[in-house]
Predict the structure.
Amino acid sequence: MNHESLEQQTAPESTRGLFDDEGEQKPFSKRNSTLRSSIQLRPQTVTMNNNHQRNSKQRSRSAIFNTTPTPLRQSTGMDTLNEESNMTMDSLRDMIQTLKGLPPHISNKSKSPSAGLDGQNDQQAREAAFAEAEAKLMGTFSKKGLATAKKRASNSRYSFQHQLPVLSENQRHHYSMIETSNNNTSKINQKSLSLSFNNNNNNNRRSSRNSDDWRQSNRSSFHLVPFTPTRVSFSREDANPHQRRPLFIAHLPFSALTPLFRSRQLVRGYLRVNKRNRSDAYVTCDDLPHDIYICGSRNRNRALEGDVVAIRLVNVDTVLQEKQEKEDAKLAKTSHQQSRLPDEEDENEIMFGGDEETDIVRPKYAGIVVAILERAQNQVFSGILTLKRPSNNQQRRTEQSEENAPRIAWFKATDKRVPLIAIPIEQVPADFINNTEAYGHRLFVASIKRWPITSLHPFGMLERELGPIRDLSVQIQAILADNNITNIDFTDAVMQCFPPAPFRFTTCDDSRRDMSDTRLVTIDPNPQFPVYENGFTISQLNDDTFEIGVHVVDICYFIKPHSALDKEARSRSTAVAMDQKFIPMLPNELVEVAQFSVGDLKPATSIVWKMRADGSILDTWYGKTVVKAAAHYNYNQVQSIIGKGSTKEGTEKDLLMLYSLACHLHHKRYHKEAMSLQRQYMKFDSHHEPTFVSITSRPSIAKCIKEFLFLANACVAQKIASQYPDQAMLRNQAPPNEHKLNELKAYCLKYLGVQLETSNASSIQNSIEIMNDPALRQLVTVLVLKTIQPPKYFCSGVLDISKYMHFAAGAPLFTHFTSPLRRFTDIIVHRQLESALKGDKHFYLDCDTIQKLAQHSNVKKQAGLVAREQGKLLSLALYLANDRQKDHEATIIAVMSDAIDISMPEFGIERRIHLANLPIWRHSFDRQERALTIYWKEGVNPSFSGNMSDEGDLNHLDQSRASVTGLSTCDAFSHTVKALDKIRVIIHVQMVKTPPLIRILAANPFAQ
């Protein structure tokens, strides 16, 4: 096997081939034994001949159509972006400058010969990449010298001088300004080039933006080795055949990333874009305690929300200084006026929510995206089509479009974090050009195919037309598309992977404990879409001892690893329950076969405890069982039974005993180490045409009954972690953001009159529960939840044991085991438990693969939560659209110098009202008292058209521009507001948005 070509074709730590059968995978030779075990190839990738490698153009899935697409069912849901081989002068220079800016190789201090060899090979691979890049730039590269180059590379004294170390927030470096030489190809071939470009080259009329700032480093010399064994390949998106000015730095080739990750010169993580300030982004990296700040779209380097990216750390002070200079220049250009009015994203987040601004909290790390490793599979976006590109020079562009026939249309995604996408005009509807306005309220779905280095915007493809935006089914489809939720029928191959209905389980051998004679009750929290996948049994052994069992569908019996059904479940990852629609992870036919139906024998995986009446555990048993469900209940039914206190025999008596024991467990855990804060949610009489909405919370019975499910999850986590300390699929939750939590504690004490204890989860819970005012209790709960980070799945082998803790649950080890029909992580945990019970020393998936599954599940779970929340807002918008009430009452959470945060308890929503959108003369803010005085325009109501003033300009006026006469006139129409005050607000619903936009503005108390 040609190992050089193997490294060239395979992205480091890619998801390709991770889950194929072992018989389908090619073994690695001893030379590649140091690679991460997750790097595996499909057979067709390995057997490519050399001629095909030289002549074929490998195309990225994110750039253009792949001629041999990977089937959807064989992927985790993340695409690895393949490297490509188009090379131009600009891309060569950009690649060299990017590689030059990387920190030096960190040599391995280990005395192990193999460790030293790894470091030497990493250094040689990096040196080879530099040498070949310069050789190709100078036109001296020859493929005939490949064999000779291998020998030279092994003995070369080639060295890299003056390389940058890994930059941290505590280091300051001075960077020289570098300009590239002229892009004229003939001049390049005529002159001898050096990688240290001349700063005084006045002939350069087209200097590259990639190398004129602190992103690159200067080097005084570079020793040329023209022939090297490692091929440097470049992405098609980084090709520049027309020699245009590059707008982004070139992505590093995958062949250069492996040694850089290994020597920790680069880090990897998931990128997220700041919703309120879309020029900022952050990367969460498991190796660093804090997020990495990415400033501006240029440093983001064409990465999108949710991408897995490679990051080079840079100096934080330099980044913030450049950002401040750009903001100052922008303010000077606009004469210190506000450049835009706040939009809906600015209104959706209140205090303590979202990412903190860099001028408030200084980032610990800053970085630049140097490669995109993975992107969500089949990622699409909903939005509208337009011929006009939003621009400051709109009029000039309109005039140009009238003279020339348009070649592209612009796709404006609903998610404002997605850039404008250029769509070929051939893909739009036939009458779009002549009837553009008719398509202004029709939704389409588009995808990004490529993003050249010379283009400010990506190029994409129009996938399909959804329909009119006001159509409810179209809105639901758009929500699913924006969250990358699969909503297609299952294939025939998937449907053939489970037994047909009616299913009768009759096998009961010695490997299963027969518990079919013990009554089993199921309690499902969602009566609208019930799935009976877990249940409880209880029997009283004596006056003070009980045997309690939690039984979960034995998913290992129905789904085998590597099957089509397993791959489909892995891709979907989770079931999504919106108010209007339920999107299953598994086919409904399998759910019907596997779930605990009343009166039928079913295989189960069980945890059975012997427990005293006070909740203390005497013994725990794990194993396979056969069970028979006796009754199905939901929370409301159980609450009714507990309220009556019935003592009848049968399942009702079982529920009473379960509730009594659960209360002891709940009291013990929540008064010691855990919390169960939850916000209220909206409930509608109809999800399609709602006429009534109410605010409700989960029944109190749910908190107690779930104690047994929590106990089962915690016990299984301990079992699999002890058997597989480096492979266990676990779930953790980091402590709250310390800065936000301290600020919240001070704010509650000073302005809300609440003493909030924040030493641990239990103290937070107790300090909120003692509040007498329910409205204040809910308000503080909302603010506390804003500071808490979401839980995440992870593999135990990738994190330090100190990070295993689940903050809210108060558990040192925790996982998800009890919902295998709705979560794929539970399926993995079931397999790990089954393997542990058999005594297997090794689990069939390695640590890296499990971590990739965990990260994929985190993304999918968060997407499901967002879709569910958007479904709630869709129902609320339908209700408010028919609501005749003109204004509503809101409670002020906090006031700022230019905005008011409010809460509307009747709808369970919070919004930020910006003064820039109100008809006011001026305002004044008392920072000490945190009081805001607003001077209203008499008789003018707020407008939702985005044009608040009479003349059409921004409605807020600079206080220094107000005249004395104006001040005395408007003083009569002013009022002062503080936290917890009540104000009247006006709600406006824009049904032509997706999901419908609910905007809230303060009502003018001086308007008729």
